[in-house]
Amino acid sequence: MLELRRISAGYTGAAVLHDVDLIVPAGSTVALLGPNGAGKTTLLRVAGGTLRPMRGQILVDGSDVTGRQPHDLVRYGVCTVPEGRAVFPNLSVRENLTLFADGHSSALDLAVEAFPTLGRRMNQRAGSMSGGEQQMVALARAYLQNPRLVLLDEVSMGLAPVVVDEVFEFLATVRERGASLLLVEQYVGKALALADYVVLLARGRVQFVGEPQELDEEKIFSSYAGLESAGASSAQGVPR
């Protein structure tokens, strides 16, 4: 569903990612793990169209979308849920969800089905809700836009454990509906439980690609500690 080929990217001329290959097979969940500063958010920005790569190619379902803007990628079925509370704080919950649903008000029922709490908050200003409730509004777009590929950046950041559990239950439902997920997540155990494949990133390079059961604690520790040698594996280990 998503393929990144030899991506190098960064900011103000300084590369953060170096020749990164990554594949998200259709209908699968890929957990992108690594220490702070590894380049995970940069990679999601490249995949979501908010950062143009210095070099490399981006394909969505076989179509070359390199250089396309985020609103163009929506037409290819790409949905991005960025880090933080990605809502319009001065709009009501209803208005936020209607915008995400591109004006189709009937889709609001889907959001309430996913997060029943939102049904009691429709007329409340989104910015006045708790962090967890705001994240529910942001995540609901992964239902309302009926995407084929969802890019998620630390969506559990700062949430209470009970809300984190609800978020991961929601992500499992999104996957069951047929969407492919590329997930950056601080809760490693929960990410591995959801994932079909794992990619470890450190110092802007892929260190490991494989299935969760192939990844031992030593491999995770080494990657997060930045001890692995660069370029240990390539994305060729993930089936298309």
From TrEMBL:
Which PANTHER family does its entry note? Answer: HIGH-AFFINITY BRANCHED-CHAIN AMINO ACID TRANSPORT ATP-BINDING PROTEIN LIVF
* Keyword set includes Lipid metabolism: no
**InterPro entries recorded:** AAA+_ATPase, ABC_transporter-like_ATP-bd, ABC_transporter-like_CS, BCAA_Transport_ATP-bd_LivF, P-loop_NTPase
Q: Which UniProt keywords apply?
A: Amino-acid transport, ATP-binding, Nucleotide-binding, Transport
Q: Keyword Protein biosynthesis: yes or no?
A: no
Q: Write down the superkingdom of origin.
A: Bacteria
Q: Which family does it belong to?
A: Belongs to the ABC transporter superfamily.
One Pfam family recorded for the sequence: ABC_tran
Residue ranges of the ABC transporter domain?
Answer: 2-228
Under the heading SUPFAM superfamilies, the entry gives: P-loop containing nucleoside triphosphate hydrolases
- Output the lineage of the source organism: Bacteria, Bacillati, Actinomycetota, Actinomycetes, Sporichthyales
From the Swiss-Prot or TrEMBL record, give the protein name: ABC transporter ATP-binding protein
User: Which GO terms of the molecular function aspect are on file?
Assistant: ATP binding
